[in-house]
Amino acid sequence: MKKYTFLLFALLILFSACSNFEEINVNPNNPIQVPAEMLLPPIIQGAVGSMTESGTRAGQYVQHLAWLGGTSESDGRYNLTGASFREEWNGPVRLLKDINQLKTISQANNQPEYEAVAHILKVYTLLLMTDAYGDIPYEEAGMGNVAGKEFASFQSQEEVYALMLRDLETANQLLSQLPASVTISRDILYKGDLLKWRKFANSLKIRILMRQSAKKDVSSLVAEIFNKPAEHPVFESVDDAATLTYNNSSDFYRWFIQNPPADGSGVNFESNDRVSDVMVDLLSSTGDPRLPVYVAPTKNSYLANRANPAVPLQYRGQRAGLSLLEQENFYEESGLNKDDLSVVGRLIRQENRAFLMTYSELLLLKSEAILRGMGVQGDAAAAYRAAVDASFDKWGTSISQVQKDAYWNIPSNTFNSSRGIEQIADQLFIDTYLNGFEAWASWRRLGFPKLQPGPSVLSPIPVRYVYSDNEQNNPKLIDWINQHMGGKMPDHNVKVWFQP
Amino acid sequence: MIKKQTNFPQNLWKSLVASALLFSFGSTPWALGSDLDRPKNDSRPLIESQTTRQQTSRISGRVTDRQGVALAGASIKVIGTNLVSSTNEAGEFSITVEPGTYAIEVSYVSFKAATRTDIQVSREKAAALDIVLEDDNVMLNDIVVTALGITRASKSVGYSLQKVDGDEIKEAHETNLLNSMSGKVAGVNITNSSGGVGASSNIQIRGQNFVGGYNYNNSPLFVVDGVPISNNNEQSTRAFTGRQDFNNPNFTGGEGEVDYGNAAGEINPDDIADITVLKGPNAAALYGSRASNGVVLITTKSGKNAKGFGVTFSSHTSLESPLKLPDYQYEYGQGRDGKYEYKDGMGGGINDNIAENWGPKLNGQLIPQFDSPRDPVTGEITPTPFIAQPNQLNDFFELGKTFTNNLSLAGSNEKLNFRFSYTNTSQTGISPNTDLSRNSVGLNSGYQIDPKLRVDVSMNYINSGSDNRASYGAKNDDAIMRIFLHMPRNVAVNSLKSYWKEGSGGLIQNSPIWNANGTVLNNPYFVAYENLNGNNRDRVFGNIKVNYDILPNLSVQLRTGRDFYNDKRTMRHAVSSKQYLNGYYQEDDVYFLETNHDMLLTYDKQIHTDFSISASAGGNLMTQVSKRLGSIASRLAIPHVYNLTNNASPILSGNVYQEKRINSVYVTTQLGYKDALFLDLTGRNDWSSALPKSNNSYFYPSASVSLVASELFGFANDQINFLKLRSSISSVRRDLEPYRTLPNFQITQGWGGETVAVHNNNYPNEDIRPEKVDSYEFGLDSRFLNNRVGLDFTYYKSTTTDLIIPVTLNPSAGYDTKLMNVGEMTNNGIEVMLNLVPIRNDHFNWDISLNYSKNTNKIVSLAEDIGVSRIRQLERWASLELRTENTKGDGSSGSLYGDYLIYDKGQLTHRNGFPQEENGDWGYLGNVNPEWKAGINNDFQYKNWGLSFLFDIQKGGVVHSRTYIDGINAGSLKESLPFRDENGGGTMIGEGIDVNTGQPNTTEVTVRDYWRSYYNNDAIATFDASYVKLRELKLNYKLPSRFLNNTPLKSASVALIGRNLLLWSDVPNIDPEVSAYDGQFVGVEAMSLPSVRSMGFSLNVSF
Asked: Using CA atoms, how far apart are residues B199 and B201, in angstroms rounded to an integer?
């Protein structure tokens, strides 16, 4: 009996031994704090991924690319709803929670260099969003963790642009005060070069200012930046431009070919995407050396003549927005087939680079500002020529000086201020190839190149992305729509504010 | 007197037979006993007395009930000796005794025991007795197991429970235990996810109470011999948008799905004595929050009632074939718009890279095809007749086979009881090269150390595994049903059997469509034999229990139990697979451990002749630990080498550890009056580690009353045999998964394979409170007309408040979800069980049992004040959402939303000739939960023959079919046929109006484009899921004892069992009783393997 009683007591003691519950519930798998730099790669990768992936839709609207007739009802023929733009919205705006964390951590740890980068990345990401969607949440974006901000409030595009300029200037100031020795880690965009980040911030300001220049007088602000490079350094070379180079082992560019085909072409002939006839014609009609970079020869001409350099390879663009029947009629009338239409070129797929903002874009905007008399010092024609050269130079030795000279020897290729805006717009269209967001925004602002929708498309060319169906039930958005947009969720043919 | 040691040789002999059987297992399991003659030296049968009659005589007789119906299996005990026997099928018994005077006691379940004394037996005169047993009132002495393993008289229980006999479970021979309960318990809804081997089943009692977390959080608690065990459903890949288990890694993000089964499904049915289902939270207040969905109490066989030493052996073989296959069209073959010509399967020919059947008519015209002969030198393809291959799927599928063999040894004496059991199950699936094997060993033993102290041990070891489990999923390129939905109708399956492309050196699969950078249709044989999903799982569960009687009325029980498993999984994708062209290898280690220590003090006292009191108090310490370790080589450097170091891209690796503890104290009291009125009160307090400190202690009470009116008021008679009224009320609280109170970062391998961090998408809550379920129920239990009619009725209602919901935020909030306490939800319903005995006589017995249940769920409120009016639970195409009634839908959980065609005044609207669909603001498609469910079982017994059949019925509920949409899109189902022209192309003008003009639509479009547009919405593929199934048909025969008299067998029976034999349903192409994603998404079909019809034969012998 005694030993049983003893046993009982021993067990009772065991029972009463409560451990520290709060310690048990601390997640051992996931840290509560991380160093700021660990957040950087996924944010940059996510933002750039949004540009390349989500921008493919815009790239179809602006007719960089065109799908074979009947294979793109949504973006080719504009059968679009909020569900069509789900990932286009969801992916980028969800990055904001991490950008906010980056800012919080860097402030707490007194790391202004990371804070500045957080500001720039927030602007870069949300600029893609506001350009495409119009009014967006800016100040409350990605703040679902804060009590009372579970549903983000929306702000007008005009207000958002102003806040972006403010935040970019904050970044510019933060970076300007740092000693040259300061660097940042895990920076997959600029390898820790803070001056380049600063130039990116100021160049983005130019993009934002020129974007709204049809609606607002931004001359003095633009002039201030261009004319005072000490206070507002901007891109000064192709090297300064914001370019993400993928590493080809774990991370791949949208157009990269992981399994090169046996035919040696280095491209994928089997997909449904083609380069548009607008792009191919624009390049070939001006003798532009970017043609073989941007565009692969047609499969039929490549397979027939690859071994025979004497026969020139053929480049042919696809007409955008055809229905299946229209495509078949085209084949019938022309005697061609899908392998007589070009896909995206080999070099682009090999080099594996995504261009966030190019030096060429900056110079083209500068040329435009000079042309429009916005008070920017310099010569519009020189800026234009430098811009086009900068676009050639993106491809390094692939475009030779001989080719460049040949291009400039064609008189119609030189700058002519009477059709300067059109020339600038065309060059923006060409330079931003595969950056659909930027090309589409530029086209909506400047109206060039002139684009024709397909013969039987379901609506005019879209000028707006439609809020994701996952966002449309946000009560704050519904309030915003009721107060500012007459209660009707805007569709893809309603202009955003910046568009004249 | 017979000496004790004479038992020995016979038992030894039995053991030898048992060992022999063990060794011969699996190979020829039913070549049993035929040539097992009795050993020559065995001449002293203990019970059967036929062979020895020199010095002895017999007591024999026949036992019947009042109607003269023979009672088989009644036990006969010779008082003052250890001689026992039982009656045979004819109710007869015979006991060999030495001459003398004896007294015997005859007992039989649900009859009053009878004794006969003063039985004179002499050498000349054997005693022959006729014994009539009086009906006992079935309900009065029936014993049930209730919470904490406390056994109670059934009549004293004030809440609804239902017992299923172990034999019924065993005879179903399902490899997933849950499936064998289908249709047998009112209020229990079981959904089988697929017909794949080892597939999981989802179980829900009285509807859905919780909406946070996984669906298996709505599973009842499974308790084996008093100790909880896991019914988790832990998967390796999880790819649909919806509730994610954010603590579990999901590296791939792919769409591959492999079902590894639900943990409770693998409990060995052969070891189960009975299952008691405690349905409501009322029944379960004592098991704590996990029991708020009800409890499934499983009692394993213990050998306690075995007389002496016994061996039983059973063997079951069954064959499985698909119950229902999609209705494919065989009029048109591969291609698009009527055009097709094969060249290289890469687009080199005409539409030869298109996995669709919108091609030319299958008229036997000569067309170069994938399986046409090809000149080895020139590569020239000789055109062959373009004809249908109508049996593709049947040719591919094999007959599934299941073998289950069980051997058990049991014995007992005054002090010791034990039962050992070994079961081997081996199964091959209908899909080639899929299998499951399971070995279960169970040991259950008890020892009465001294009159006051008793120790019981129950241990179960299960090893289960598979060389390959089928994978499924509507976006999974390895899903067999998806492959065949896209399979060209003109390809003969035989031409796919050599699944490597000739001359590729085993590097490229032989498929009609294969292009490294373009379209690939996986060859099904390639998938079956190269893309393997194996696993091996070891599991041990059991407990040790010590009971000690401190005082005559006071006893204490200490118990410790654990459930542990470790599952090692491997997933392979061979080089040239569609999703992984360079091959793929993944390993996963899943570890789970739950331990429970508990203590219970029990006090029992008859205070007065009319009053009794029984009280228990105790405590429990629960710890749950789960661990995952996973690694992926997403590209292989050397093909066919499945080793993680053979990685051509950085390895993705990760591990997680989870721990949760709950400490509890509880008390329960039962007060009885005149053994006919009972009041139960319980209280429990939990401390959970998963809740924030300020909210981590919570108390929940319950009360119940049972009134046996027929006893208390004494009106029991032949018309009303029994009437019990019961009622109970309870309040249960519930915690959540661990690590949901502090925000954190998820770290993964990112850019260049280096570690990166993102803030956890699912934002936790530092102030979360436990959820609360308040419920009440009342009911009655009654027997009428000489117990020929039995009716049990229950009404219940439960209200859940403070629901812990990861509230879906809008994308602009940055976070997918934020954990909050929101809303209120109710469930109410009725459960009816009706038993009828239309015929009962000496030779023939007919029993009907019917169960019916209906549950109504209502979302009373969410958090509208902060803008939460809908919560998306799961989404893959159609989406399961919670919405209150003031938004679209029926305001109950299980509502399905999706896109739909736009009609204007009954006219389908068109734009440019195509039907217009609304896919921005989704429409209500129906509710996946049934209106009601019922099961009807008829059981006929004629002499030694038994025949029974069980119908399982579901009324209402919807099912969304991806097979339907994908199949029509691919031109493979019959719905895609209308308006195709002679060549297979053609155009049409859709019926309806043009949305711009309002006039009839006149725009002509191609047939393919029209139907693809018409059928590409969720609403059109959502069907009324009502069905009737012939769930089980069973014919059995017990060998009459006269055949067994000269054998060592005590009993033997054979049975033919068919399961899922017939299905009546309006849902095309699929069995409506399916769920997608291992039971996570009930009501959505996502191309899992078809459910199977099974026909089996089983043999049971005991000796």
From this structure: 7
- CB proximity list for B810: less than 8 A, separation 6 or greater: A151, A152, A470, A471, A473, A474, A477
Cβ neighbours of A132 in B, within 8 Å:
none
Buried/exposed code over B520-550 (b: 16+ C-beta within 10 A; e: otherwise): bbbbbbbbbebbbbbbebebbbbbebbbbeb
Residue with tokens 């027997």: B783
Residue partners of B111: CB distance under 8 A and separation at least 6: B65, B71, B74, B133, B134, B135, B136
Residue A490 phi/psi, 5-degree rounding, is -65, 140
User: Would you call B811 an interface residue with chain A, using a CB distance cutoff of 8 Å?
Assistant: yes
B353 interaction partners in chain A (CB closer than 8 Å): 270
The SS3 assignment for B652 reads: strand
CB B298 within 8 A of CB B228: no
pLDDT at B940 over 70: yes
- Amino acid B253: pLDDT: 47
Count of domains for chain A: 1
List the Cα angle B644/A253/B573 in 5-degree steps.
Answer: 30
When CB atoms are compared, the residue of A25, A474, A475 closest to B738 is A25
Which residue has tokens 């010590």? B546
Proportion of chain A above pLDDT 90, given as a percent: 79
Three-state DSSP class for B506?
coil
CB B124 within 8 A of CB B117: no
**Structural domain of A160:** 38-246+353-484
Instruction: Find the Cα–Cα–Cα–Cα dihedral B1055, B1056, B1060, B1065, rounded to 10°.
Output: -120
Indicate the pLDDT class of residue B252, thresholds 50, 70 and 90.
very low
Q: Would you tell me which residues 235-264 of chain B have a C-beta closer than 8 angstroms to some C-beta of chain A?
A: 247
What are the angstrom distances between the C-alpha of A350 and each of B157, B709, B919?
75, 86, 38
pLDDT in tens, B286-315: 787 888 888 898 988 887 766 678 899 999
B656 lies within 8 A of chain A by CB: yes
Residue in B closest to A90 by C-alpha: B811
Report ipTM for this prediction.
0.92
CATH number at residue A389: 1.25.40.390
The number of CA neighbours under 13 Å toward the Cβ of A436 is 29
Residue with tokens 């669709």: B356
Interchain contact, A186 vs B754, CB within 8 Å: yes
CA distance A461 to B152: 76
Q: Does a structural domain hold residue A253?
A: no
Which residue does chain A place closest to B816, by CA atoms? A94
Q: Is position A199 within any domain? A: yes
Does any domain span residue A46?
Answer: yes
Statement: residue A219 has pLDDT above 80: yes
Residue numbers in B near A274 (CB within 8 A): none
> Contact at 8 Å (CB) between B582 and B636?
yes
And the tokens for B876? 């893959």
List the single residue in B with minimal CA-CA distance to A270. B518
Instruction: Judge whether B564 is closer than 8 Å to chain A, CB to CB.
Output: no
| Rg over CA atoms, chain A | 26
Rounded to an integer, what distance in angstroms lies between the CA atom of residue A338 and that of residue A269? 9
Question: Which strands make up the sheet holding B221-224, listed edge to edge?
Answer: B161-165, B272-278, B295-300, B221-224, B227-229
In a domain, residue A373? The reply is yes
- Identify the CA nearest to B633 among candidates B568, B582, B685, B708: B582
Q: Which of B744, B813, B912 sits opposite A152 (nearest CB)?
A: B813
The amino acid occupying position B405 is N
Interchain proximity A144–B813, CB inside 8 Å: yes
Distance from CA of A290 to the nearest CA of B (A): 25
Confidence of residue B285 (pLDDT cuts 50, 70, 90): low
Q: How many CB pairs under 8 A join A and B?
A: 240
